[in-house]
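User: Hey, my collaborator sent me this sequence without any context and asked if I could get a structure. I don't really work with proteins. Can you help?
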Amino acid sequence: MLYFIAILVIFASAPFVFTTLFFFTAPYGRHYRQGWGPSVSPRTGWILMELPALLVIGATVLFSSQNVSPIALLLLGLWEIHYLYRVCLFPFLMRQNGKRFPIVLIGFAAVFNSLNGYANGTFLAHASPFPADGLFPRVRLCIGVGFFAAGFLIHVWADHNLRNLRAPGEGGYKVPRGGLFEYVSNPNYFGEIIEWLGWALATWSIPGLGFALFTAANLVPRAYANRAWYMAKFPDYPKERKRVIPLLF
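Assistant: No problem. I've predicted the 3D structure and written it out in structure-token form, which is a compact way to encode the shape of the chain:
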């Protein structure tokens, strides 16, 4: 029953979040504003928000009574690599700039991440033998893993470049340059979308598809708001840059 509730929440959240975020930009990072109740530091916020995604899927798979397939364990490892980065590395590399993270956003994200981790973990635990028999499923699996790896590398690269725009002790914002930043304002979001599209292809599952849709629904409006912010703050911001999808949007 919980599995179906989690699936329902994931798919219902995508259109709701997509629509809402085009009207109300989530108040964290450069868009932080007061009036959203108690808050914590961004570092604490990211850890608390992403930790359930790291732990729940692992517990769901590893404590399952099923014989988990090697391919499912491989995919679990890819998921955990992403969230180990998000929980154990990214927050401690980010520069503390005095901005805050509303606890209400952390709560919503933690609940979603818990349900999402449970749904994807339940699929992995029960997908034995994994649905990758035959030429097309194997090719699809390889393409999906390749997309996931490429998206993760893009995501980490973009985060690294954004962190290093400012010298130590320097404040304010700058226009990022070079690489994919010449084509889109938010290559880190582009990388994440590619990652979870790859996950959906590799798992060929309903929860994987739901998470890919939710990721796009969450990040596309954020990318729209970020580019508008850059355009307003920097009069010379390159207008030819797309928001999140190179050459398209």
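In plain terms: The CA atoms of residues 88 and 107 lie 19 Å apart. You can pass these tokens on to your collaborator as they are.
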